[in-house]
Amino acid sequence: MPFKWFGKVSFVPYTKVSQFADELKEGRLVGSRCLSCGHVSFPPRADCIECLSPDFEWVEYSGKCILHTFTIIHAAPTGFDDIAPYIIGIVDLPEGGRLLGWMRGIEKEEIEIGMPLKVVPRMFEEIPEIKVYYTLEKRE
Amino acid sequence: MKVGIVGIGHGKFGRRSDATVQELAFEAFRLAMEDTGNLDRKDIDATIIGSVPEYHKQRSLPGVVAEYLGMNDQPTWLTEAACASSSAAIRSAYMAIRSGMHEVVAVLGVQKMTELETPELLALMGRVGDVQWESIFGTTFPGYYAFYANRHMHEFGTTHEQMLKVAVKNHHYGAMNEKAMFRKEITIEKALAAAPVADPFTVFDCCANADGAACLILASEEKAKKLHDTPIWLEGLGCASAAMSLLRRPDLVSIPSAKAASEQAFKQASVSPKDIAVADVHDCFTIAEILAYEDIGFCKKGKGGKFIDEEQSYIGGSNPINIDGGLKAKGHPVGATGASQTYEIVTQLRGDAGKRQVDGADVGLTHNVGGIGQYTFVHIYKR
Ligand SMILES: [Zn+2]
Prior knowledge:
The complex is a heterodimer of chains A (140) and B (383). Chain A contains one helix and eight strands, in the order H-E-E-E-E-E-E-E-E. Chain A has 140 residues and is mostly beta strands. Chain B is α/β, with parallel strands linked by helices. In chain B, helix 2 (61-68) links the parallel strand 2 and strand 3 (76-79). Chain B has a domain at 3-117 and 209-227: 3-Layer(aba) Sandwich (Peroxisomal Thiolase, Chain A, domain 1), CATH 3.40.47. At the A-B interface, strand 4, strand 5 and strand 6 of A face helix 4, helix 5 and strand 5 of B. Residues 34, 36-37, 39, 48, 50-51, 53 of chain A line the site of zinc ion.
């Protein structure tokens, strides 16, 4: 699957980590692990930031996460005005790294930095072409 | 060998539908030449343009600007570091002079942001972050600083009212600055009731896109003493970078490049934050000024809200900051902002700031952040 299928609007059709989008379509959230030094990265990288190795493997993430910060976008850029206002969260992933995505099923009043959340892989049903993304949802 | 500023010029910031980008550059350049007085164009060894190219229809800006200023066939080139592009130009000019390659260099920060149609601007706005992992969720510039604001509130109990006090201060001083885009005082009540942009920000937490230019003439120590009776010396330079993506930053309550650049500049200039009589910091959003107080070291991490509560950044406080109105009231023509900050500090150190003058100001600082902290330049000036 080309990487352009990741996101409501795509700016990046080609990347060495395009398999990320295939995995997400199958319901798996993956990061990268360096085959040389073992460094784990999310967002995934083809090339290791620690040791410069270009060799990596995919590592599955649990999706468990903790809300680090958030905002509610009212003034939206091109391609997002139809869904504004929307809540964006940044979460810490216990396996390593952070992730940014839409918060779903959570009212503004319920948001608390530090709250447990989960990353849920999703596809846009209302768009004819394949478009995958993820949301941040409540976790008990 | 020291490097001094011997000439400064600043055009009117705002929606300049009366002028092209090279015409804006000309205004600031002409004023800087007038200010220097005793300098011929042919004695300027090079012109460095600080600007962000994607806002202009005209490509390769140094070409058209150098031609319009009548500065061919001297060398010219562009430096780009997002909102810190003209501070990057100042750093390049300093290096060029210290190396002995050039003696006199013009730095021209110039930007025209309002010639783009709103849809073009909104599309550009959608690509300010990491386009692979973040922009696909509709992130925006205010949104990124709002992430900082909410985290700062969570960790330190900072309030939105404290952030808006920054806007109130900067509009208070901006009202006294004839170069500023907005020249009206505002109130916290009015700011809170304004249209929401990115929670917790309303439009009054955000600076405005603008058109404008500012120009500086830098010279070697020997030349500077000949050209001006009060050269203002650039004695500390700090510059650092940080991860483009907030997902790869160590924390979301400080700008790491700003801390590193500040330390470098203080060390080189042999001064500390308490010595700074006047500063211009990068208040693209209200939280950004609070982060700047802490990252530069005017107060401890987490105490930025208290610092503005106590009015320490007003004239009469411990460190008067953005008393030209800051980006908030002056407007933020991105490529011109670093040169505009420097214009203010030079004016203050010369003692020419009129009713906004800090009495006896002898050491000044500029803090210019590119993007969301991908680049920060901190410069310290002495008279
Ligand atoms: Zn490695």
